[in-house]
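Hi R.,

Here's the chain you asked about this morning:
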Amino acid sequence: MTHSISLRRFKSTLVAAVLFGLTFACSTQAETLWVRAGKLIDVERGRVLENQAIRIDGERIVAVADHKNDPSGRWVDWSGYTVLPGLMDMHTHLVGSIMSSEIAAPLYSSAAEDVLKGVENARRTLRAGFTTVRDVGCYRAFTDVALRNAIDGGIVDGPRMFVAGAYITVSGGGGEVTGFAPDVVVPEEMRRGVANSEIEIRQRVRELIGGGATFIKVIATGAVLTAGTTPGAAEYSEAEIRAAVDEAAQYGIFVTAHAHGAEGIKRAVRAGVRSVEHASYLDDEGIALMKKHGTWLVADIYNGDYIAETGRRDHWSEEIMRKNDETTQQQRDGFAKAVKAGVRIAFGTDSGVYPHGDNARQFAYMVRYGLTPMDAIRSATLGSAQLLAKERELGSISAGKLADLIAVEGDPLLDIDKLRQVRGVIKAGRQIRLD
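And the predicted structure, written out as tokens:
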């Protein structure tokens, strides 16, 4: 009796294994996708390949080779386009509405409304060819985490998101909702990252990571767009920033620093942050420190023009307009010096100040201020992947990496603005946009 039951179990297990194997083989074959690229930009070797065939199995690239014939399977014909890795923006704000003249705007919508607005912002960003972003903070804690989870779960379309959870900032600092009368109480959900000592900073880092943050954003100086703060003024000491870096490192997580002022930049670099955002008053000493420590520069050098034009048209406050005028050219000059010195550059635009989906407008500014077109493209592909420490997964069209591809008209190495004319997007092997 026992032998008979064991034999039946063996046969059942064998049949199940065979069926599983057949099902797996069929599903694997069904998931194979071929992409024919008229031109392919190889950001790893700095070259352009012609007439390439890219094989994608499931989410990943399996092979890239000269196109000689058409194997069986599904094909995407991008033979009339230039094909690049999916673009990456390391400084976005997808959740909520874009910047306006109304200082109370963050209080006008609920957390749910902010996330729903983020759904549309994420869709626009992805369709513009940006398949990965670093979302560098939101006023309502963890709304970025909710959007990220919805994208990862396939509920909505959007770029792959790395999220901060909330800003770590001093009371009344660059990461606060400010500009109100002293007796106005800002909701606690908008102050989850407020920390005024090393002990409080460590606590906030743990709370944000526990809530789903995948990196930490420290507001090291005042901000252009935060009322009552001074961009050049340091708001955290070097020891306080280092507390965030050390605490995050225990979880294998990096810290980035919002830092306009020269002293704040240097404190952040010495404290060990992974990247510096904005860097409006970056000086020669700061550049040398960034080069020495391998710190990445993420500078939103298009943004000043948008603020100047839109702010004057829509009557933004005199304070914000003055601070923008004082920092815009200074930031661009520092960026040009950093490029010349060999500082590591990653692409970041501060989308959310300007409308989402026009992220690629900044490429022309980066070329104007010192990058070659190839290096500008690298900053938004392989360079950004390296900043995230995800270069084994992202950043180039190579076997084994996630299949993030875009197609553009023309040659962006001759006219970098061609990157604003995206005609096809594939994210992790899934076709998002085929015009």
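The first strand starts at residue 32 and ends at 42.

Let me know if you need anything else.
M.
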